[in-house]
Structures are given as structure tokens and as C-alpha cells.
Design goal:
- By secondary structure, this protein is an alpha+beta fold.
- It contains 4 helices and 19 strands.
- Strands 1, 2, 3, 4, 5, 13, 14, 15, 16, 17 and 18 form an 11-stranded mixed sheet that branches. Strands 8, 9, 10, 11, 12 and 19 form a 6-stranded antiparallel sheet that branches. The chain has a two-stranded antiparallel ribbon with strand order 6-7.
- The longest helix is centred in the first third of the chain and has 19 residues.
- The protein is globular.
- 37% of the residues are buried.
- The N terminus is likely disordered.
Length: 401
């Protein structure tokens, strides 16, 4: 018993001595101060990826969740310029139609926010097939016979907002004048806006609801830095793309100059009656059209067999093709794929054909005839030379249905 007591006393003295030397686990030192207990830092919970379907940017508080995107067909013959509302579009398509002219299709995330836009013109299938998988509200006045077949075959009547079917979808500005100060023909005077579209949707009980599980293109995650282009996939030429020139036909050309102070490309178009380029201006606000991304996609485009009289153009999307992506004053060669009309338009890496991400922002997309590849150029702004031609040297008669 005495031996057991001696052992207990010895242990007690050892503990007391250890404590006096500041060796306990409570964080108390010999000076009486207390060390903070070390706690594990919890891993932050990542914010969910919630991107705008057309721009790739993070959705804002007023994002129209569950609403269909809206496509609006807009005229682009020289006599109808300047157009209205194009600067507000989230994405803009330009493709050749009959007679070598081009037309625009403007895409909007929220139709309620569409300003006055136009002149509104007729639908063409080379545009419609690119947006068909997204089932947008499709706004136009008139359509080609081929486009009418697509509307019928794909049961698209419910989302086909046709101005000829309901004249209250648009209004006419019969007193408008064009860039040259001349009055324009009646077919170039039709405009619409978000209010008129919303009233059409309500009047005809249009189903304007649709959830999108992905974005229109594969965008770089808005939580990550933007992609820097290296030009490593170019077959020739410099990766510097301060000026990008696209030839759609003899008389229709589009040019972009990169503004490094804004980080965007400024758009200009060829005016054959002047023999020079002019800035592409939105008549609503006097602003030049600006884009973060440029996508130039080359395809076989030719006249539909049996439609030679109207010169209706067919764009072959099933084969895919080669294209170019411009951002930040640089250029990269890419490939594109489409497949069937119900397949989405995909941009892929030129070598691996893995998905190719483009940076977030406003995007200009053009599908160009393979025959016009020699007319597609890019160069640094330092070496760019403004092209001038004598007015009236183009063998072209402007005409449009």
C-alpha cells in the first residue's frame, strides 16, 4: 500500500513539473498567455456555373431565366443602312443570300429588352438551320419557299413570328432616309421591338418558355481568365489580327479593326457606290458595332437546284469545315461541325477536334462561301492599308425580294 502511494505521488509531481515548464496541451505558456487553437480551414464552396446562353458571362439578377432566345432577321443591302438595334444583340450572324448580298440575324437573350430593330426582312434557311436546335422565337417578314418547307417539316409554326401573318408585329417608318440622305423603298421601312414582340406572344399564346442546359458555344468559364490566342494552328501568316477583312461576294465585304483600348473589334462594311469602307453604325444610338469574338466559318455555298430564277442560296453544313477565331487582336485556325439541322453548331480544335472554347462576350459569326477564301485576310493594324476603289467599278445591281 505504501509502495502504491509513493508511485502516485511521484506521478503527480512529474505532471506538476511538466505543467510549470509550459509543456501542457492547453496552449498556456509559462508566462500565462494562451495560444489560439489551430483549426482546419474549410474548403470554399464553389459558386455554381450559371452562364448566359449567348454570351457565356455570368447571369445577372435580371436574367430572363427559362425564356426562349429570340432571332430577328435584318436587312443589309446598302440602301437600307444604317440599321437599328444591332448594337444591342448578344450575337450577330451574317451570311450571303441571293444576288451576292448578305443579311443579318440578330440573337437576343431577352426579347423584352429588344430596342427598335430593323429593317425586318424575310427568313432564309441558311440562318434558320443554325438556330433550329435552340428553338428560338424567330422574327421575320416573309420567307423563301425553302424556308417555308423547313417551318412545315419541323413543326415550327408556334415559334415562327411571321410579320405577314400578323401585321401588328411591326411598324413602318415611311419617312426614313438612308446613309446617303435618300428616302428608301417601302420594303426597307419595317421595324419591331420588344414591346411588339411581347404583345404578339401574348396575343397568339406563344410558348416562350424553354430551359437551356448549355450555352450556344463552348465558352471559357467566366470564373477563369480569358483564353490567349497563340496562332499555333495557322497554316500561314501572322497571328496578329488587328484588321480582319471578309469578302462575301464582289460587292459585299465586312472589315473589323481591333481597338486595344476597348478590347473589341469595330465593324465596318464596304460601300460599293463610294468605293470604300464605312463604319457600321446603329441608327438608334449612333454607336459603331463592336464585338469581342469573331468567328469566320467557310462552307460550300451554291444556288439551290431548281431555284436558279430566285438564286436561292444553299449552305452545306453537313460536312463541317475550316474556320478562324479572332479575339484580342489575335487569330486561331479552328474547325466547325454541324451535321443535321437538329445538331448544334460546334467549334472544335483544328488538330484534335476536341471542343474549342471561345471567350465570353458579344460574338459576330459569319458563314462564307469557300470560293471567297482568297478574299479573307488578316494583318496587324500597323501594316494595314485602307483600300480605296473608284465608285461604280463593281458590276452589281442591288436587288432583293
Amino acid at each position: 500500500m505504501k509502495r502504491l502511494l509513493c508511485i502516485l505521488m511521484a506521478l503527480t509531481m512529474s505532471v506538476s513539473l511538466f505543467t510549470a515548464c509550459g509543456g501542457d496541451e492547453s496552449g498556456t505558456t509559462s508566462g500565462g498567455s494562451t495560444k489560439p487553437a489551430v483549426q482546419a480551414t474549410p474548403e470554399p464552396t464553389p459558386e455554381p456555373y450559371e452562364a448566359n446562353v449567348l454570351t457565356g458571362y455570368e447571369k445577372t439578377a435580371d436574367y430572363p431565366e427559362g425564356q426562349r432566345i429570340t432571332a430577328v432577321m435584318v436587312n443589309n443591302i446598302q440602301t437600307c443602312r444604317p440599321q437599328r438595334g444591332l448594337s444591342a444583340a448578344d450575337m450577330l450572324f451574317e451570311i450571303k443570300v441571293e444576288g451576292g448580298i448578305t443579311r443579318f440575324m440578330a440573337l437576343f437573350t431577352d426579347y423584352n429588352q429588344i430596342p427598335d430593330i430593323g429593317p425586318i426582312r424575310s427568313a432564309r434557311d441558311q440562318f434558320f438551320r443554325l438556330v433550329l436546335p435552340w428553338q428560338p422565337l424567330y422574327v421575320h417578314i416573309g420567307q423563301s419557299v425553302v424556308q417555308k418547307e423547313y417551318i412545315t417539316n419541323y413543326n415550327y409554326d408556334e415559334w415562327n413570328l411571321e410579320g405577314n401573318f400578323d401585321g401588328n408585329l411591326y411598324y413602318r417608318n415611311r419617312d426614313r432616309v438612308n446613309w446617303a440622305g435618300n428616302h428608301v423603298d417601302t420594303e426597307h421601312t419595317a421595324y419591331t421591338n420588344g414591346q411588339l414582340i411581347a404583345e404578339y406572344v401574348e396575343r397568339h399564346d406563344v410558348d416562350d418558355r424553354r430551359s437551356y442546359n448549355s450555352t450556344f458555344f463552348d465558352f471559357v468559364d467566366y470564373r477563369e481568365p480569358a483564353k490567349i490566342l497563340t496562332g499555333e494552328n495557322l497554316d500561314t501568316g501572322t497571328p496578329d489580327a488587328g484588321r480582319v477583312t471578309i469578302r462575301h461576294s464582289q460587292s459585299y465585304r465586312t472589315q473589323f479593326d481591333y481597338d486595344s483600348s476597348l478590347g473589341q473589334y469595330a465593324m465596318a462594311q464596304w460601300y460599293y457606290s463610294k468605293g470604300s469602307y464605312m463604319d457600321t453604325i446603329d441608327e438608334n444610338n449612333g454607336q459603331q458595332l463592336m464585338f469581342d469574338n469573331l468567328l469566320i466559318l467557310f462552307a460550300d455555298i451554291h444556288t439551290y437546284p431548281g431555284h436558279e430564277a430566285k438564286d436561292l442560296q444553299y449552305a452545306e453544313y453537313g460536312w463541317g469545315g475550316v474556320g478562324y477565331y479572332c479575339y484580342g487582336g489575335k487569330i486561331e485556325r479552328i474547325r466547325w461541325q454541324k451535321g443535321t439541322p437538329l445538331d448544334t453548331l460546334r467549334i472544335v480544335d483544328f488538330d484534335t477536334e476536341e471542343p474549342f472554347e471561345i471567350n465570353c462576350g458579344k460574338t459576330y459569326v459569319t458563314v462564307v462561301d469557300e470560293d471567297e477564301i482568297p478574299g479573307f485576310t488578316w494583318e496587324s493594324l500597323e501594316t494595314a492599308v485602307d483600300v480605296q476603289e473608284a465608285p461604280g467599278t463593281n458590276d452589281f445591281v442591288e436587288n432583293e425580294d
